[in-house]
Automatic annotation (TrEMBL), chains A, B:
SUPFAM superfamilies: 2Fe-2S ferredoxin-like. InterPro entries: 2Fe-2S_ferredoxin-like_sf (IPR036010), 2Fe-2S_ferredoxin-type (IPR001041), Beta-grasp_dom_sf (IPR012675), Corrinoid_activation_enz (IPR052911), Raco-like_middle (IPR041414), Raco-like_middle_sf (IPR042259), RACo_C (IPR027980), RACo_linker (IPR040506). This is DUF4445 domain-containing protein. It holds the Pfam family RACo_linker. CDD domains: fer2. Residues 5-109 form the 2Fe-2S ferredoxin-type domain. Gene3D superfamilies: 3.10.20.30, 3.10.20.880, Domain of unknown function (DUF4445). The lineage of its organism: Bacteria, Pseudomonadati, Pseudomonadota, Alphaproteobacteria, Rhodobacterales.
Amino acid sequence: MTEDALVIFTPSGKRGRFPLGTPVLTAARQLGVDLDSVCGGRGICSKCQITPSYGDFPKHGVTVADGALTEWNAVEERYKSKRGMIDGRRLGCQARVMGDVVIDVPPESQVHKQVIRKSATQRDIVMDPATRLLYVEVAEPDMHEPTGDFERLAIALRDQWGVDDVTADLTLMRRLQPVLRKGEWKATVALHKGNHDATPRILDLWPGFHEGGLYGLAIDLGSTTIAAHLCDLKDGAVLASSGLMNPQIRFGEDLMSRVSYAMMNPGGDVEMTRAVREAINALAASIAAEAGIETTAIYEVVFVCNPVMHHLLLGIDPVELGQAPFALATSGSLSLDARELDLTNLNRAARGYVLPCIAGHVGADAAAVALSEEPGKSKDMVLIVDVGTNAEILLGNETRVLACSSPTGPAFEGAQISSGQRAAPGAIERVEIDPVTKEPRFRVIGSDLWSDDPGFAEATKQTGITGICGSGIIEAVAELRMAGLLDAGGLIGSPEQTGTWRCTPEGRTHSYILHDGSLEGGPRIMVTQGDIRAIQLAKSALYAGARLLMDEMGVDKVDRVTLAGAFGAHISPKHAMVLGMIPDVPLDHVTSAGNAAGTGARIALCNVAARNQIEATVHHIHKVETAIEPKFQEHFVNANAIPHATDPFPELNAIVTLPDVSFNAGGAGSEGRRRRRG
Amino acid sequence: MTEDALVIFTPSGKRGRFPLGTPVLTAARQLGVDLDSVCGGRGICSKCQITPSYGDFPKHGVTVADGALTEWNAVEERYKSKRGMIDGRRLGCQARVMGDVVIDVPPESQVHKQVIRKSATQRDIVMDPATRLLYVEVAEPDMHEPTGDFERLAIALRDQWGVDDVTADLTLMRRLQPVLRKGEWKATVALHKGNHDATPRILDLWPGFHEGGLYGLAIDLGSTTIAAHLCDLKDGAVLASSGLMNPQIRFGEDLMSRVSYAMMNPGGDVEMTRAVREAINALAASIAAEAGIETTAIYEVVFVCNPVMHHLLLGIDPVELGQAPFALATSGSLSLDARELDLTNLNRAARGYVLPCIAGHVGADAAAVALSEEPGKSKDMVLIVDVGTNAEILLGNETRVLACSSPTGPAFEGAQISSGQRAAPGAIERVEIDPVTKEPRFRVIGSDLWSDDPGFAEATKQTGITGICGSGIIEAVAELRMAGLLDAGGLIGSPEQTGTWRCTPEGRTHSYILHDGSLEGGPRIMVTQGDIRAIQLAKSALYAGARLLMDEMGVDKVDRVTLAGAFGAHISPKHAMVLGMIPDVPLDHVTSAGNAAGTGARIALCNVAARNQIEATVHHIHKVETAIEPKFQEHFVNANAIPHATDPFPELNAIVTLPDVSFNAGGAGSEGRRRRRG
């Protein structure tokens, strides 16, 4: 046996020679192997578990003898008897190298482990959170070498963890002395390393070795809904996902009406800021309760939002966003104390991070979609639409990425729809209309049965059938078009024209009765001519935005489409294409990214390097301003027809034949005119 | 004439060759000549005025022709006609080099000018304030290259002033857009550059070019008094000096009684923190009113204080400072937002800086004295005593500096003295007692007349004669000793022993009647036996601390003594030495440094580099702990006698002969015992 030995780590493949007696953890650190440790090698935290492999390893050119590591020691015995340990495992800080050895680092011992989410959108995120726990042993005060307790804690963090120049606020300073004494000069700190060159900051500390949870909130602050994921900062697990309506809706349904509210009402922006901050506090409380944790265990919050929500969250009057040149007060990312945003339902020292905006109309939510979907890494030309009250649209591939936003309005979210409601139990979410009988069947959230399945009435008894949500209205309109009850111009036919009583007159237009619950005391759920118009406006805006990017890119088709947004997962690609929401592509090239903005927020929450990445990326995304581009208006008008007045949809036509009906050549939807012609 | 020309700047002597046509300001910047400019060379601010010199300059080896600079231009004409300019002056940003030239930079055009204070302690401070005004021209927003207004402001600061990575808080972000538009994309920012590697921060901004004042507070937060200087951050001028009693006195007169209060009363530290912060707010308001400025124009506040005041200011329970090992929660300097200290009577964005502490009993006030008096740069052995409720004592020279603090109590400040009061009009501040007649004469604050001068009664009619202040009691006790009315043990003699009715019995001891105002309805002002005891305790503590440092230094005499402290300027060296407050030195080697701690605070306020300097210096000051040093007690007991029981005072004896009286060999001051012996 030589004086030193070869140590090979898997799965990284990193290898090096070390003097006999070197702890495995030390070898791992020197090689830069990703092996976790909270206690810094003191045999307390058990995070550094490793699995030695014995025998011949021709692949590595090494043979591992039985005595390649030191025998089990008392620390390991105690740990195993007290808390259990998988057979074959060792503590990396206790086991020392005594001969050539192959060491496997299991996933749960890696700091930067890839974690698979169980809930929320499935996504592997490499864990590299800003805040983590570090155990330290602090020198006791010495009257003859006087220094402050904080300065000795800082030295301990430097010497034991390589963390330089830590800071802390006065609240932590106040708690420091009792905690250090209670822990007999041992303590665990929650350290926020920040991004860029921010100085690391101690957010919290506990006496002795502490293993409590650190949690973070990833918040997608939309015009209509505020959605949050509560994540464990240790492994990225989503403990709970929750959402609520944005209370700013009472000041205006869409972005521009809120900007107008701020312009017309002095102090209106302050009112809206207060409302949204209160809602976020309420959301933090409810999501923490749902997950069974204390709000004080939430140490970080990451925000993605459109520019108007961004400014109102930060307490900045959004008035400049309502007029050209749509100047943002600040476009860069922001790292701040959560309490600067009056977010009091978090740990008092919690940090906030707001993703950068791309432009005055393309916000941090679009940046988050870019972070999640990475169009700049795509080989083929991908169109990503994040459907909300405002649609964020990205188009690009490895060579170039374009972005715009388009004011779709809240129709896709079920607002401004006569029977519209948010996606909640009782809401109709799927619709089919028989092209022969013109009879509908549907499904409601909360039951897997269709309305013509046996037991449906029983299954929906508790929720009732209360309305129609965003994906339901899209399907309903597309089905009406496919069943020949709606013409390309967007007019619902009369009972005589369509041959069904369900197309019933409502004033001078017609509505389609989707479900009449009045006999059971429920609502009558209809698709009105006004609903069709709202959907037409929304889908025209969406399509026109996509077309504008395609013009700028110089393409007239895209390779694939990704539907993102809170209900992106629920939109049927076929129905979206019948409606002409998105450009014509093969149906199997339309995929859903779920809540991509929310996923982007989670990535930024769990991985500090991703923050730097998106901050760099946004500078390379070219932004197209829909509001001042004359072509936008032309695209918008042409997209008003269902699916489109001029663009061919060959891929759609190959699978769906749309009935060639026309209920009013004039297209004005006027009973009077129709009668005159009839 | 050649293609370039030689430019020589005086008084710096810096020189270089520049292409013809180079503005003088540009040449100065490239050579690192200290030439001010707020507007960055746009001819707006006039800070860059220079004086060209013409003719032969053999010393510089150059001859300056008449056309060495370009002719006066329109910008200069306009400036001169509007605001006036000294003959011979030019604007450095407008005048361009056309030939060899000698350029004088007058003191008022230097950024780092040395400024002589008119009030407060006279002191030259090189100006290098943390916060200064910078004028910038910001690019307008461009829809096609979207960035935030803040990001374009940051670019302007980088390109026009070389300031990288500025930050700002949300309150400033909120104001940014209206200000930039009002100033048509020109603005002036108040930039705080911070010390160390802190990122520069915009504290305030104004549309266009702005010349308003930036002010700072230097606060000496003492146990008994809080003293503040309001300084102009442009030139260091002291606009007003003010003080008030520390309201914490109601929780305990000295440091240890306040620590006890915190220990005995849960929440007591919070109460004391609130009290002192409220007092500082009140002081800020009154000093701003006195100077005729708005409190919002105060952008910085610097604190010096002893460790207990330090912790209570920061909101940290000082309990650990009451017991060995006297551990500070934090000893380093602190840079923070003033509003973290609830200081609301300043600009909302005002920054705070707290000097570092040296040890658990030797605080930031001692550090400030070290910064002001620089014992580490002294060739001879200097003893610096900062007299207050706690005395900070420094001893050293170039080779080594020692420090300790000694609990003198508040007697030197007129507290715990029967007729004691703070130094205010009406207080007796000077005392003489005729050694033959034993009659006193005195002066009161507010009048230059002695009490036996004609017109004294008239002159003091308005203030009255209300009590005796710290310097007055010191003189009174020393005069009693010199007049033979007080013996070395500290006993006041009886009327019989002293031959004067003014030594009047008070219970079992005697008091000296300094002034009887009872006929005019004023108080009877006496020096009681209790007053003598209080002064003895205080001066013994002070002397014992000094001796302890001399022991540690291995010297039995010092070369000179500097008396510092709020009333250091008013203590007569002779009386201090008769009392035995300070070690024996030639009288003309005793000087006053005035409020050296306050001066140190002003230096740190006006010069950022000084902060770095003192932060480095405190690590080299060796601290001696009086509380646990057994020799301290011995020194204390021996110092109880007036001037001293054992130490010879040859320098004092050479100029003063102290009567060899003894009023009670037992020293207990008991009438009963005296009677038994008599």
